[in-house]
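Please complete every field before forwarding. Incomplete forms are returned to the sender.

SECTION A: IDENTIFIERS
Entry label: holo-348
Bound molecule: zinc ion
Molecule representation: SMILES string

SECTION B: INPUTS
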Amino acid sequence: MFDKRSWIRLPRNVLVGRGVLSETADAVGELHLAGTPLIVTSPTPRRLAAESVAEQFDGCPMVTVETASFAEVKRVIDEAEDCEAGFLVGVGGGKVIDIAKMASDELGMGFVSVPTAASHDGIVSGRGSVPEGDTRHSVAAEPPLVVVADTGIVADAPWRLTTAGCADIISNYTAVKDWQLAHRLKNVEYSEYAGALSRMTAEMLVDNADSIRPGLEESAWLVIKALVSSGVAMSIAGSSRPASGAEHLISHQLDRIAPGTALHGHQVGVASVVTEYLHSGDMGRWQNVHDALGAIGAPTTAEELGHSPEQFVEAMTTAHEIRDRYTILGDGVSEEAAIEAATVTGVI
Ligand SMILES: NC(=O)C1=CN([C@@H]2O[C@H](COP(=O)(O)OP(=O)(O)OC[C@H]3O[C@@H](n4cnc5c(N)ncnc54)[C@H](OP(=O)(O)O)[C@@H]3O)[C@@H](O)[C@H]2O)C=CC1
Ligand SMILES: O=C(CO)COP(=O)(O)O
Ligand SMILES: [Zn+2]
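SECTION C: PREDICTED COMPLEX
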């Protein structure tokens, strides 16, 4: 009997471009959401964008968060209940977006995503990632109803945040390979649509790598478009599988071993060079990933990330333990194999 089911939760309005911040209230208004929003932001994005968004909603309340933590999620929930907010608007980087997304999920409220940096593909997805205990990977959260990405603001954000977003997209190549492998070996459900969209997104970004340069609004446009498309792939799949494979496991493990050392996207990019090597051993393939990262100025070595060779190898050999997600790491790679892979690819 045919018993497949799918429930795809996508944003309704996605605005990308110069000055679109000023259209936030219009984009939200179309959805006929009830009540006044609570704006969730952090210090820098507050100054750059959130104050202006609040004005569009007649000076609605605002809460400023500092750290990516469950205590902050709880504080946002409390504030939303106190001011009887109708929905949440997250204005900021990944920390803010994820806190707002997770608080919305808990409150059963609509969520609006206003990213001020193109640092990873969580800006559009229904996945939230706030560190809790040893857990670093994303969990299901409220997907945004509206996304407003002003390329003028994103282009002026620190360049390293944008290169991190690019590297998060480049890592889709290996994520899809891991997903296909899990499909073949473990009968994990695979979506051709989500897999193809994720891979195509990485291809388009790599094909345009030469035009991705600091301060250029066109670059912000390209990267945001790619992050949107990668987020849609995750929504189609109903999981982060299209954009998260062994390279993400290694990065999550690095976050546990040495928290706060490097940006998520930079870590998954470097790890992706190694997992591409593990997939095929073909120099052409891992070199392509390496060169694509290099072309946009993202790190390609553990040292550039700020991790020692030992830390990187430890992350490689233990990453398979952190989540029930089959990848090229299988039931674990040996220390010798990890050292070999990381050395051949020049990562350590
Ligand atoms: N949902 C998902 O799939 C994923 C979620 N994540 C989560 O995302 C978070 C990391 O996101 P990331 O964006 O890198 O980090 P942050 O949100 O911490 O932002 C990084 C820094 O950039 C600042 N900033 C943001 N926008 C601008 C701007 N336009 N101009 C100048 N500075 C700016 C922030 O300011 P300030 O200090 O004021 O905040 C902060 O200091 C982590 O919490 C991680 O868990 C990571 C990967 C995937
Ligand atoms: O970062 C992500 C996709 O790029 C989310 O992946 P995780 O589910 O591994 O956290
Ligand atoms: Zn990622």
